[in-house]
Amino acid sequence: MQSRFRSDPRLTVRMTVTLFLLGLLYVAFVAALIVLLKSWVLVVVVAALLLGAQYWFSDRIALYAMHGRIVEREEYPQLHGVVDRLCAVADMPKPLVAVSDIDMPNAFATGRNADHAVLCVTTGLLRRLEPDELEGVLAHELSHVAHKDVAVITVASFLGVIAGLIVRFAFYSQLFGGRGRKDQNTVAIFMAVMAVSAAVYAISFLLIRALSRYRELAADRSAALLTGRPSALASALTKVSGDIARIPTKDLRTAQAFNAFYFTPAFGAEPGIAKLFSTHPSLEQRLEQLGRISAELGEAATPENTA
Fold first, then answer.
1. Three-state DSSP class for 253?
2. Which position among 72, 133, 135, 141 bears the catalytic label?
3. d(CA 199, CA 218)
4. Which amino acids are annotated as binding site for Zn(2+), given as ranges?
5. Is 141 annotated as catalytic?
6. pLDDT in tens, 264-297
7. Annotated binding site
8. In a domain? residue 122
9. Model-level pTM?
């Protein structure tokens, strides 16, 4: 079913190309491991099982990792009310609503499709945002579900995890299974496996980061157009980014592994070439886009809209 979130053909193309390139990359990776390790059954079976588990249970894994829990309307009526209204406007199924009891202001959506999605916000976000700002953030997260990029980024990100696990298996199988046969040939195989895995990880890392940055801009754009209040989303972005900067670094590092799924990253985008490694575009880039949309919509830049 097509939602009323404005489609983004460029996002669709980027997701397709990224998955295609990653697919080719990992087929070549697994093939290389099979040739080098001379054992294809375990490599293929383990990779397939792990990928399937991540695809089918990604929502539960993410909630568990972020200490989130599903909440009912009676407990968080305002939150459910905003989600209900947005889903009605967007004409899409309502996801499960969850809350994570942490102070870091943030939100994320996860799940393999619109019928099996979870929208999670932190209590830190709920405490800090005004109703129209919260609506903008939730619309942003729902657009990820509507565009199906949640599932794509979940699968794409996990391929790197699979590669890492396969490499560990290769390492330990050579370390503990060599039985004294650790000759030059064994060392050469081990080095070849590590070289191939390093190249695969580097390429996949850059592809995923590039897709992640664009999908955040696409979600901002779709949310602003659906709600008709880009200034509210801009205000939420500014407020959340500023407040995250005041969260203790040790707490942010715990959440950093999930940056690609968050509304805003635990650590802000870096300048210069470091931008290539960021999961999100810079705050300035996001605000600039929202400013253009606001001008296109003729939204009045009044104190009420920008507070």
1. helix
2. 141
3. 29
4. 140, 144, 216
5. yes
6. 876 655 556 667 678 899 999 999 999 999 999 8
7. 140, 144, 216
8. yes
9. 0.80
